[in-house]
Amino acid sequence: QTWRMVTEEVDGQVQYEYAQEFADRINEKTDGQVTIEPYEFGGLGNETDQVEQLETGAVEMAVMSPGFTGNMVKEGQLFALHFLFPDSVEQTQEVLNNSEALNTDLREKYEEHGITPLAYWTEGAMQWTSSGTAIESPSDFEGFKMRTQTSPLILESYRAYGADPQSMSWGELYTALDRGTVEGQENPIFFIGDASFYEVQEYMTISNHNNYVAMTTVNSDWYNGLDEEMQSTIDETVEEMQEWVFEEQKAQNEEWLQTIKEDEENPTEIIELTDEQREAFRSAAMDVRDFYRSEVSTVDGEILDKLEQEITDITGAETG
Ligand code: 6CS
Q: Ligand 1 center to residue 315 CA distance, Å?
């Protein structure tokens, strides 16, 4: 049997490396009975096409970002909220692994659309890059043309700082930054490096304002139709991969930070925010939580409330 697994990234990047490793493990565990074909970004269309392919069962598996499913699963947009997850990436992964709000409640919301998220994992803390303006305080975002993914709440999060956000596929982003169609974007460091965005940006602000979360997803009907043994093999492999991908993103993010710092041909000014500067963004971002509860959530923010409690239980501090 051959199953397809689409990703939103290309060879060498975290999602695609994940898919390859996942495929190798399944192949080995099934003594070659099952082959999983990983697809790079673009191989079967753009990010939005991929969501549709998984929904309809045209592909069996996908690595998918909630940032592209916001128009479908409203609740999934909670990942867009800035300063929600712990500052520590380790603790963030702990929340992603153990949260009932995400692994039970949010999973059910996705399943209403035929998609089952089997796991959530971080690709690292997100940072801002910019040209023209160094982003150090919310006022630096005033009128700033910011590229984001398609989820409406991501755009709302930048409007809260006064920015002028627009969504586009990352496939168009290098050119858009180069031409000044947009002035900045957010991503984990490895992606800012590997997709060469830093080459066409002047500044990188270490904001850690959010985490890039990806999901390992399957078409629900397909998954539910597998025999028990195959389902367990998949579940067990998804579980093992959590530790693997944490180490992978960590290594890639560390390596790329070094490379960006040392690239003299493409100098990038790296800005570390002080606690006070970060606090200004954090307080400007808080209204977006209310917006999520009142305008976005279809269950009055219940999943977010539960998640906030789970986060507090792990960090011992309020998230808001
Ligand atoms: O910015 C984006 O849209 C892309 N960023 C990452 C880290 N992975 C794929 C995604 O499409």
A: 27
* DSSP character at residue 200: G
Question: For domain 2-315, is the CATH number 3.40.190.170?
Answer: yes
Q: What is the pLDDT of residue 86?
A: 97
Among candidate residues 78, 82, 52, the one with its CA nearest the CA of residue 64: 52
Distance of CA 117 from the midpoint of ligand 1 (Å): 18
Instruction: Give the start-to-end residue ranges of the domains of the chain.
Output: 2-315
The pLDDT tens digits for 76-98 are 999 999 999 999 999 999 999 99
Is 122 within 8 Å of 96 (Cβ atoms)?
A: yes
Q: For a substitution probing ligand 1, which of 7, 64, 146, 149 has the most ligand atoms within 8 Å of its CB?
A: 149
Kindly list the distances between the CA atom of residue 122 and the CA atoms of 33, 85, 212, 244, 247, in Å, as whole numbers in the listed order. Answer: 30, 11, 6, 12, 10
Residue 6 pLDDT level (bands cut at 50, 70, 90) = very high
pLDDT tens figures, 205-222: 999 999 999 999 999 999
